[in-house]
Amino acid sequence: xxxxxxxxxxxxxxxxxxxxxxxxxxxxxxxxxxxxxxxxxxxxxxxxxxxxxxxxxxxxxxxxxxxxxxxxxxxxxxxxxxxxxxxxxxxxxxxxxxxxxxxxxxxxxxxxxxxxxxxxxxxxxxxxxxxxxxxxxxxxxxxxxxxxxxxxxxxxxxxxxxxxxxxxxxxxxxxxxxxxxxxxxxxxxxxxxxxxxxxxxxxxxxxxxxxxxxxxxxxxxxxxxxxxxxxxxxxxxxxxxxxxxxxxxxxxxxxxxxxxxxxxxxxxxxxxxxxxxxxxxxxxxxxxxxxxxxxxxxxxx
Length: 301
Hints:
Layout: E1 10-11, E2 14-22, E3 26-33, E4 37-44, H1 52-67, E5 76-82, E6 85-91, E7 96-97, H2 98-105, H3 110-129, E8 132-133, E9 142-145, E10 150-153, E11 160-161, H4 166-169, H5 185-188, H6 195-211, H7 221-230, E12 243-244, H8 247-256, H9 268-280, E13 286-287, H10 288-299
Antiparallel strand pairs: 1-2, 2-3, 3-4, 4-6, 5-6, 7-9, 8-11, 9-10, 12-13
């Protein structure tokens, strides 16, 4: 039975205008607030409202998000219970998901990728400073506005408090949270996960933006799971025919993809500094990407 469409109702002062998305646990509405203007209004599905675990997880997401105040993180305005519904009111972020943009545009030029990485790293550094590990970084959880080239990070649904006791942060081997294509290997092996897991995920996103491919080639979840645990990722310059990248940029991205967390950059800020420095000292890209750029420039003359 489909969930009731709440468009047209006013809940906790938010006028719900239209339903814009839905998942297994919640629905998202475009809403209007008298003082805050356009908002995203997330509502826990009614069938889960009587499930204490589902309610706890939903409110935990709201609480974690509210702890991070940064221009690159979608702002949490309000959350709680009203009219028998659990809700989360968020800043309305312009633009579509980064996943949608890259699927449409294809591999992005290194300067654009580095700009996006720097913004995300800055936002994630703020989350880490607030004691929050995101754990579910992926292009679908990032909004991108092509006009401003600005990104915003969202969805703290499976974030974890880094200040919890270690026994509460361990993940059993074979059980993980996140999205397999972007999850850090230590999240699969039962190790203690810290902010360096987010570095791995951001490095994977950078790799994907640059090449349109993922660092591992597993075609099934089982195959990909095993590759993440036992195999080094494919070098950046071998990801797609005709694409070649400056060695320093490849080194910076591949360091972020080290299976051993201790071999990655120690912080988000350090990862962003590495890729920025690599681009600043690099020669122009060679291969197909450079040829395409020359062709585009030629059409504009």
